[in-house]
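Example 272.
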Amino acid sequence: MNPLIITAAITGGETTKAQNPALPETPEEQAIAARECVEAGASVIHLHVRDESGTPSQRLDHFRASVDAIRTACGAGPTIQISTGGAIGASMEDRIAPIVELKPEMASLNVASMNFSDEVFMNTPADVRKLAGHMRDLGVTPEIEVYDAGHIDIAKRLMKEGLLKKPAHYQFVLGVPGGLSGESRNLQFMVNSLEDGDSWAVAGVGRYQLSLAVMAVVMGGFVRVGFEDNVYYHKGVLAKNNAELVARVKRIADEVGRPVAGCDEAREILGL
Ligand code: KMH
Ligand code: ZN
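Predicted structure in complex with (5S)-5-amino-3-OXO-hexanoic acid:
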């Protein structure tokens, strides 16, 4: 079986400490969370950052502080995947800036506008092309975030336009109110829609996190867990930290004989 890449989405753009007091917000908290997740089996850290008051931020100094703190805690180990989705309402200029200035090895790329719970997550075609163009020109590998089946078709069009390279790496974020829900038939449909050589991971939102992780482990996909998408360990029981969610996926993989990728192996698999 191919090695399993586990991504830890430790903070997110929408989760609050009111939902789980263990949410890492400061660079120091994020560094501890990242180290614990890597020790538990994660090889990629999907990173959103906050300002001093805990409000989501796309500011460069905030990204720099968190990236530096994570590097100090984890060494060159994990791939730090910068979020260009940010929080709902962030301007496209602010979302692009960390990519241009920090030139990370990997960053998320959202390809469509959609309702996102009670709000609207804006990704106009012009903005998506602009961001994808920057990533291509700077050699930043995109993880294509897709929340609905048609988003894969949008990504394929961007490939035809030369803005995205093949093979592509997708993150299926399933269970956002406004996107596709996290039933197994939906995951299977998404996987069936990919082209040869593409890779995929799944991030189940809320109650879908565990079931979709289990499916991905046996289907040969990769898994994202963490407080960005889900703050619970069991129904009604908050996770103590992000690492607890990572460790559970690692245990499941161990049980079914799927090796878990180390940090260098993940980089190689993702072509970074
Ligand atoms: N906060 C969500 C609206 C990403 O990181 O690229 C978007 C998001 C996606 O989290
Ligand atoms: Zn994110």
